[in-house]
Structures are given as C-alpha cells and as structure tokens.
Write a structure and sequence with these properties.
107 residues; alpha+beta; 4-stranded antiparallel beta sheet; two-stranded antiparallel sheet; 2 helices; 24% helix; globular
C-alpha cells in the first residue's frame, strides 16, 4: 500500500516519458531506530511539490497516488514519516521517508 504507488509513479511519470534507458532503485536501511526507505529514478523529474498550511503534500497534477501515500504514512506513523522529495527536471526524482522499526536485531 505504500511502496507500490511510489514505484508505479517512478515508472509511469518518470521513466516512461524519458528518452533512452531508465532505472528505478528501491532501498530500505536501518537508521537510528527507524527504517529509511528510498525510491529513486533517473527519469524526467518533477516540476514542483507543494505542501499546504496543514503540511499535506499536493503533487503537481500527478493524481492522488503520492498524496494518498503521504496521508497514510502521516496517519499511521506521525508527521516525522511524511514523504520527502528531491527532484530535478531531466535528471530524476528521489522520494524517501522513515518509519519506526518494528523489531530489533537478534545479534
């Protein structure tokens, strides 16, 4: 419910309209008691991302997928888990968030 729309957006809106080869990278790594999750592509990038005065994310004409994921993360894990973006037109987009780890390593 969280990763699928992010990967789909990377492919559909980032890679598909790109001329030439493209890639999507999904990574999850432990980070200070959280799991840091990143979805990155080398697609066409996003023009603008906007948060309203309530902190809600509104992507520019990209449909509801990213907004729904952002709302779901914030509702379940709090504001610290809101989606974050780094994007540059023509070079790609990186979407990332942190969620609490649910278990500890057994070592």
């Amino acid at each position: 419910m969280i990763l699928q729309p992010l990967v789909e957006n990377a492919i559909k809106h980032g890679i598909t309209p790109k001329l030439g080869p493209g890639w999507v990278r999904v990574a999850a790594n432990p980070n200070n008691g959280n799991v840091h999750v990143e979805i990155e592509d080398n697609g066409i990038g996003m023009k603008d991302t906007v948060r309203n005065d309530k902190g809600e994310f509104h992507p520019p004409s990209r449909g509801l997928g990213l907004s729904n994921v952002d709302q779901r993360l914030r509702a379940v894990y709090g504001e610290r888990s809101a989606l974050e973006f780094e994007s540059c037109c023509g070079t790609g987009t990186r979407v990332y968030f942190d969620i609490p780890r649910l278990f500890r390593d057994r070592n």
